[in-house]
Design brief:
By secondary structure, the protein is of the alpha/beta class. The protein has one domain: Alanine racemase (TIM Barrel, Alpha-Beta Barrel).
């Protein structure tokens, strides 16, 4: 699979977005969204230096991860059901989509049984879309200390999915809102949160301008896939 053109184009767009806001491109991690793409596509991206891949379904990832280079890092970015927490803790380096205290507690339980500490991001539904998962912003502030107190979980930041729009600029307010919420969370914790995971194929440049440290990009790298939603 030849990803030379899309990878080079994507890298140039990330670099240009960083230049516009005075950031070093090394401060932005590309999370290549590989769901519904075969291991061959993952290996092709890895050949260009991509090291972090995002999957939305535990069952698909369990099969795919074993067929890809061991050096790659895997993040879970989809809605996680409690009965999949054991496998998610086992197969993934980070869970980006923690959307409730009960889910955090379940992850903590399986991390403890596995003898590992699990980095997480708290998913926030900034736009309040009924069709989306994620905490309401005010609920994050209510549960933050409880989640942070769990022994085998490390809160590394926040994640959001902006409403889809053909105009990337429409997502700016959502990304800015997540950045501002991170500041409030840092004040509560008395410690910095290193990550904001926001921005997908259609709006990642705006997300970078608003402070994203991780952008989750699938279509712009791998091309179109059968599902309608484009990461």
């Amino acid at each position: 699979m030849d990803l030379a053109v899309p990878f080079n184009t994507l890298s140039a767009r990330i670099a240009a977005a960083c230049q516009r806001c005075g950031r070093d491109p090394s401060t932005v991690t590309l999370v290549a969204v590989s769901k519904n793409h075969p291991p061959e596509a993952v290996r092709a991206a890895a050949d260009f230096g991509v090291t972090v891949f995002g999957e939305n379904r535990v069952q698909e990832a369990k099969i795919k991860i074993g067929q890809c280079p061991a050096r790659l890092r895997w993040h879970f970015i989809g809605h996680l059901q409690s009965n999949k927490c054991r496998d998610a803790v086992h197969f993934f380096e980070m869970i980006q989509s923690v959307d409730s205290l009960s889910l955090a507690e379940e992850i903590d339980k399986w991390a403890d049984k596995s003898g590992k500490t699990m980095p997480i991001l708290i998913e926030v539904n900034i736009a309040g879309e009924a069709s989306k998962y994620g905490y309401r912003p005010e609920a994050v502030l209510e549960d933050l200390l409880k989640i942070n107190a769990l022994r085998k979980i490390e809160v590394h930041g926040l994640m959001t999915v902006a409403p889809w729009s053909p105009e990337p600029e429409r997502a700016r307010g959502v990304f800015r809102g997540l950045r501002e919420l991170k500041i409030r969370c840092e004040e509560i914790l008395g410690a910095p949160l290193p990550h904001l995971s926001m921005g997908m194929s259609g709006d990642f440049e705006v997300a970078i301008e608003e402070g994203a440290t991780m952008v989750r990009v699938g279509t712009a790298l791998f091309g179109e896939r059968s599902k309608a939603r484009k990461e």
